[in-house]
Design a protein that fits this description.
- This is (northern house mosquito) hypothetical protein.
- Residues 58-79 are annotated as: Disordered.
- With 103 residues, this protein is mostly helical.
- The protein contains three helices and no strands.
- The longest helix is centred in the middle third of the chain and has 67 residues, at 2-68.
Length: 103
């Protein structure tokens, strides 16, 4: 009789422990999934921003080409239009998480 009671008690305790473990595991999985979803959304937004930047650069370049067609080019003032070597890369790396320009 005592043996049956202990067996029943152990079975219920095991079931309750298993259910608690599964609830905790599920909650962890939901939190992980939400974190991954937030990260993906962030990366999608960065990609949209970068795509918009590329489009604006392309459109401004094509506008400049249209404006200069048929005109004689003025000599460029290199002090104004000088490109700082690392500046462009730093701007690009700002959109790439986990990537360093010092690679």
């Amino acid at each position: 009789m005592l043996c049956c009671y202990l067996r029943s008690f152990c079975s219920e305790a095991f079931t309750m422990a298993t259910e608690a473990l599964l609830r905790e595991f599920r909650a962890d999985m939901v939190r992980s999934f939400e974190a991954v979803t937030v990260r993906i959304d962030s990366m999608e937004q960065q990609l949209r921003d970068l795509t918009g930047l590329i489009r604006s650069l392309r459109s401004s370049a094509s506008k400049k080409r249209r404006k200069t067609r048929g005109k004689t080019r003025q000599p460029e003032d290199n002090s104004i239009n000088a490109i700082v070597p690392g500046e462009v890369l730093e701007h690009i790396f700002a959109y790439l998480p986990g990537v360093s320009p010092n690679v």
